[in-house]
Amino acid sequence: MEAAAIKPAQAKNGKISLRFGDWEVRHFQSQKMTDEEFYAFCRENADLKIEQDIFGNITVMPPVSPESGNFESEVGIDVGIWNRQTQLGKTFSSSAMFTLPDGSKRMPDASWISLERYNRLSKKERQSFARIVPDFVIEVRSPSDSALPFTCSPSAHATMPITRAMNGALIMPTSKWVSETASRRRAR
User: In Å, what is the CA distance from 23 to each residue of 15, 42, 48, 87?
Assistant: First the structure.
């Protein structure tokens, strides 16, 4: 992939476009975006999987391999089957964005929220990046994640979805390793 080429000639309202080879990130702005601006930015770049950290830094998530994608799909199916049997909440795919209490916006590989907590969300919140911490998340570490600091320890990397959820699991398929965490934190 080529280095990013910034096209300031096409800047509008302080926003620029960034090119990475054939990929273009449209209407990017250099300062931290408000929630509304981030939502619009994601909609403008709907073909990219984008997250935002506590400092406003934008991360474009790379695609995963078919093997990792299959594993993510399988664990999502398992959570979905369990939820259909119990009817205790709502399940979410890896495309569902949640705004965490620290302001970061994350998309865990699979997640679940109890019906009681989900029903407290307004229609508008359900149709945007709701400010809610899932009750349970699953993160599947893929080979492309090797440089990322994944952990299930609530004291470290607090902006990762798995440490913010009330319960979670980190799965590393290549080493057949699973780590889980349970938190006594109360989330909205």
Answer: 17, 15, 9, 41
CATH class of this structure's domain 66-182 = alpha beta
Is residue 182 within 8 Å of residue 135, measured between CB atoms?
no
- Six token digits for residue 97: 């964005």
pTM over 0.85? The answer is no
83 φ, ψ (degrees, to nearest 5): -70, -35
pLDDT value at residue 58: 83
Query: 87 CB contacts (<8 Å, ≥6 apart)?
Result: 115
pLDDT over threshold 90, residue 73: yes
Question: Which candidate, 114, 71, 63, places its Cα nearest to that of 92?
Answer: 114
Query: Could you tell me the residue ranges of all domains in the chain?
Result: 5-61, 66-182
Count of C-beta atoms within a 10 Å radius of residue 115: 12
**What is d(CA 68, CA 144) in angstroms, rounded to the nearest whole number?**
10
**What is the rounded distance in angstroms from the CA atom of residue 45 to the CA atom of residue 48?**
6
Neighbours of 132 (CB within 10 A): 20
Nearest to 48 by CA among 18, 65, 25, 16: 25
Compute the average pLDDT of residues 1-25.
48
Predicted confidence band of residue 151 (pLDDT cuts 50, 70, 90)? very low
Unique residue bearing structure tokens 């994601």: 42
